[in-house]
Amino acid sequence: MDVKSRIEELRKEIEYHNNKYYNEDSPEISDYEYDKLSVELRKLEAEYPEFSMEDSPTKKVGGTVKRELRKVEHDVPVISLQDVFGKEEVYEYVNKMIVELNKPKFVVEKKIDGLSVVLRYHNGELTEGITRGDGVIGESVYENLLEIKNIPKIIPSKLPYLEVRGEVYISNKAFEKANKKQEEIGGKKYQNPRNLAAGTLRQLDPSIVRDRNLDIFVFNLEISEGKEFTSHSETLEWLKNQGFKVSPDFTVCETADEVWDYISKVGNERWNLQYAIDGAVVKVDNLEDRKKLGMTSKVPRWAVAYKYPPEQKETIVKDIIIQVGRTGRLTPLAILEPVRLAGTTVSKATLHNQDVINEKDVRIGDTVIVQKAGDIIPEVIKSIPEKRPADSKPYVIPNICPICGEATVRDENGADTRCINSECDAQATRSISYFVSKDAMNIVGFGKSKVEALMSEGYIKDIGDIYQLENYKDEILEKNVIGREKSVNNLLNAINESKNNNIDKLITGLGIKNVGKQSAKVLAENFADMDEVANANYDQLINLPDFGDTMVNDIIKYFRSEKYHTIISKLKEYGVNVISKSSETKSDDSRFEGMTFVITGTLPTMKRDEASSLIQSLGGKVSGSVSKKTSYVLAGEEAGSKLTKAETLGITIIDEEEFKNMIK
């Protein structure tokens, strides 16, 4: 791959993971893996400046600002630190500072894995709290921060203005409590403490923050009008005396050996701490030295963040079993000799598909190296052939389904193996669980355990049967299938409420191969009801924004199946809405007929969903990518690579004001 292509690939991958981490609070890779990508991109951009772009993720900080919360501009830009990954890099940094400065000292702190916030105090009283946002503009979460006990609302020193920066987190104990509560109500368990803390702090209901017991460590003094300090360690001690909970167990060092010893000590104990950390920060202590060092174009020169690699351990594959998913996909699962890893006991890990098994050559009885991807999901890194039993054989996914005994086939253009029996019990269980999930029909309280219980008692065979459960209420209560009367009533009420969902939720819940939430919304916006969707032909579907050949054929195949017609007949009979509420908003005005718009960046006053709805109501289409078929690109602030591509292709670019003139 040439340099330009690799740079473009890295930018695209980093932007994707930025969105998952900062805006969705749902990271898919570890910080360590993410930082490796960032470092590679920065190095390539430095070596090949001709490929530099202003909208590169290396020139941005954090995520975008959520629209639901009030925007606040930062007094001091909230910047990230330069990352280092090994002992050599730590020594190189510390020794370089020793050469440049006069007998410098270093403060080493644990890097808490949470959400950065800035706290503002006027005359000793807390007046504002802001998330990092994009580093220049954050979002006010003041009301939520008032619910965090360890944030002092009034401090003894009445400085005219004080600004401090800290990390909001949730303790492991509070995290376990929150997950236990989710289990009790049949909800989805939270992935990790960082995601839960970040998601909680962005809630619009402060009582949720109070209920989940968020906490904070303050790690930096940004502004202190009326009081001077000489060192960072001095500011931490002063903040502690003011009632702040500061960086835990920070230490002051003078040599690279001392710095590395502390980093190593923290690394050895990190999984026994009561809170999550993802690294250690090394800071020059003297504040005058910091001013002298200044910044590069992106990061301060007076600090670095050491990132711990994921913890890896050896264990043994006791067995490989097959799980069958809602689409019939067979997923091999390694059953492991239990091993303590990243704070929890790991006893199984997915092997994904036959290609992954072949590539890593994982066999039953093998000794393997395991780690947690993102410190969350256990994965097998590699096998150790020299420790393999003499009689071991390569593992091959069976050609019959372990649940129903029917034949399995491998996808023609993919790596997955599937059970082709649509009546397979395993598929039915997972299909129904998906149908009732938050992403689909969102039937609150209808967890997998209730689905399995109702199926085993014969009350549900397919998704259509969900809506006739009310007829068996007395029997279900008498047998105590899913709990007592209150639990049953709550579930039946939630089922009834779901009947009023728009059809995009229903289409999502049907579990059509390659059709997700966004594609379902597009179908709901372009067809009047489920019958129109089911009868749509290839030409109608292929012209929808971002619909490709594979997806269109999967849609046609599903809606032509006998299974669909059986299900939809039941749903109609039980009163489930099959009319598109999205298409009802379309007007007789079709001025955008035949036009395709791409929306990029942050618009001054309109939400992107709002602009999309207006375009579609006037007969136009909205696409997620720029191509020669694009009619207009509606661009806001920080428009990024889509704007650049539009300029290259000569596509007409409009701003919000021009767009509003077009729709008058």
UniProtKB/TrEMBL annotation:
Q: Which GO terms describe its molecular function?
A: DNA ligase (NAD+) activity
List the catalytic residues: K111
For binding Zn(2+), which residues are annotated in this chain's numbering? C401, C404, C419, C424
Which co-factors does it depend on?
Answer: Mg(2+); Mn(2+)
What's the Enzyme Commission number for this chain? Answer: 6.5.1.2
Reactions this protein catalyses: NAD(+) + (deoxyribonucleotide)n-3'-hydroxyl + 5'-phospho-(deoxyribonucleotide)m = (deoxyribonucleotide)n+m + AMP + beta-nicotinamide D-nucleotide
- In this chain the BRCT domain maps to 587-664
User: Zinc: present as a keyword of the record?
Assistant: yes
* PROSITE patterns recorded: BRCT, DNA_LIGASE_N2
Q: Which InterPro entries match?
A: BRCT_dom (IPR001357), BRCT_dom_sf (IPR036420), DisA/LigA_HHH (IPR041663), DNA_ligase (IPR001679), DNA_ligase_CS (IPR033136), DNAligase_adenylation (IPR013839), DNAligase_N (IPR013840), NA-bd_OB-fold (IPR012340)
Q: What class of enzyme is it?
A: ligase
Binding sites annotated in the UniProt record for NAD(+): D31, Y32, E33, Y34, D35, S80, L81, E109, R132, E167, K283, K307
What keywords sit in the KW lines? DNA damage, DNA repair, DNA replication, Ligase, Magnesium, Manganese, Metal-binding, NAD, Zinc
Q: Which family does it belong to?
A: Belongs to the NAD-dependent DNA ligase family. LigA subfamily.
- Fetch the NCBIfam families from UniProt: dnlj (TIGR00575), PRK07956.1 (NF005932)
Q: What does this protein do?
A: DNA ligase that catalyzes the formation of phosphodiester linkages between 5'-phosphoryl and 3'-hydroxyl groups in double-stranded DNA using NAD as a coenzyme and as the energy source for the reaction. It is essential for DNA replication and repair of damaged DNA.
Can you name this protein? DNA ligase
What organism is this sequence from? Romboutsia faecis
The top of its lineage is: Bacteria, Bacillati, Bacillota, Clostridia, Peptostreptococcales
